[in-house]
Amino acid sequence: xxxxxxxxxxxxxxxxxxxxxxxxxxxxxxxxxxxxxxxxxxxxxxxxxxxxxxxxxxxxxxxxxxxxxxxxxxxxxxxxxxxxxxxxxxxxxxxxxxxxxxxxxxxxxxxxxxxxxxxxxxxxxxxxxxxxxxxxxxxxxxxxxxxxxxxxxxxxxxxxxxxxxxxxxxxxxxxxxxxxxxxxxxxxxxxxxxxxxxxxxxxxxxxxxxxxxxxxxxxxxxxxxxxxxxxxxxxxxxxxxxxxxxxxxxxxxxxxxxxxxxxxxxxxxxxxxxxxxxxxxxxxxxxxxxxxxxxxxxxxxxxxxxxxxxxxxxxxxxxxxxxxxxxxxxxxxxxxxxxxxxxxxxxxxxxxxxxxxxxxxxxxxxxxxxxxxxxxxxxxxxxxxxxxxxxxxxxxxxxxxxxxxxxxxxxxxxxxxxxxxxxxxxxxxxxxxxxxxxxxxxxxxxxxxxxxxxxx
Length: 456
Hints:
Elements lengths: L8 H10 L4 H19 L2 E4 L1 H12 L11 E5 L26 H8 L3 E6 L28 H8 L5 E6 L5 H7 L2 E4 L19 E6 L2 H11 L24 E5 L11 H15 L4 E5 L8 H15 L1 H7 L5 H11 L3 H24 L4 E4 L13 E2 L2 E2 H4 L5 H6 L3 E8 L5 E7 L5 H14 L12
Parallel strand pairs: 2-3, 2-4, 7-8, 7-9
Antiparallel strand pairs: 1-3, 4-6, 5-6, 5-12, 9-13, 10-11, 12-13
Helix pairs in contact: 2-3, 5-6, 7-15, 9-11, 9-12
C-alpha cells in the first residue's frame, strides 16, 4: 500500500499545502488502491477517475483554495453532482444525472476537495445494510448501512473522507462495523438540498473519515445555513469545550432493555469509559430514554415521510423497486393522518425527554454502544427472525428522533478481529465538543489506525 494512504485527511491536506506531495499523487494512490481492492469490498457505485485526475492537475497548478485543497473524497450515491449519475443504488433512478451540485458538494469543491467517486448505499438509503459492499475486515460480513460504501472505502484506504446521510444510524452503524469515525449532525445544521431524502424530520448529512479531527474538518466545510434548504438552520455550532471540563453520562441498565447486547460490545464500551473517564471531570450514571420508548413512533414518521417524498417514484417506476423498499413505502403510504400526527407529537415529547438528560441530569456528553450486535454475515436480513430495522438500530435511531448530534468512534476489536465502536452523544450543536473529546480519546488509543489485511 502506498505510504500516502497512511495519512489522515488532515495530514494529507497539510502535505499538499506544504508541497510535500501533490493532489495528483494522492489521487493516483487512491485510484491504484481502489483498483486493487474494490473487487473485494465493493465501495464504489461509480468512479470518476478522469474527472478527479483533471481536478487534481488544476489544483496543483494553482494556489491553495481551501482547507481540503487537493484531497480525494467520496460521496454516498445520494448527493447530487452535476452531470454525474446519482442513483442511490436504485434501479428506478438508473440514468438520473442532476444538473446541479448539492450545496454540500459545492462547499467541498470550493474548499479544494477532489470528488473521486460515488459510493454504494442501501437502496434509497432505506435500510441498515449495504448489499453491494462488503466489510474489509472480513468480506463474509456486512458493512452495515446505509452508508456502507463510505465506511468500506475508508477502512480499505481508498479515499480520505466522505459524506454520508444518517436517518437512524446510517453513518454510525457502518463506521462501527468497519472501524472508522463519523459525526451524526444536529438536525438542520448541514443543508440537505440536492440529496435524495427519505425523511424531512430524521435525515441528517454528516462527515465520515478515519479520525475525529478529519470529521471535524469536513464538518466545518459543509455546515451552515443554505437558503436552498427550507429546513436549514442558522444556528451556530458550539465552541469546543475542553475535555477536562466535561461530565460524562453512562446510561443505567434500563437503556439496554430490548434486544440482547453482545457482551463484547459492552466490554468495549466499558474500556472506552475507563479511557474517557481519565480525560473528563466527572463520570456519572444517567437515565436515558431507550428504543422501546421511540421505535414505533419513529418508524411511523420515517415511513410515512418516505412514502410522501418518494411517491412519484413509487407510482411511476415502482415495479423497479426492491421488495424491501416497496414494502416500506407501501406501509408508509397507508399510515392514517391521525396516526402520523400522534407519532409526530410523541416524537417531540421524546425529544424533550432526551434534552432533559443534559439539562436536568447535569451531564455534557453521554456514551452508548452503536449496535447491540457485531457485524452480521453479508446478506443477512434479520437477527433471530427480527428484521434488521429495529434489531441493529436500538441505540442509534432514538438519537435521530431527538435531533441531537453524536460521534461514532472505533473502540476496539472482538475476539474474531472485527471492529467494535461506540458513540458519544451530545446536546444540540455540540459537534465541536464531541469531536474534541473524540480527538482526545484517539490520542490515547490506536484503534483508528488499524488497517484490514485485505487478501489482494
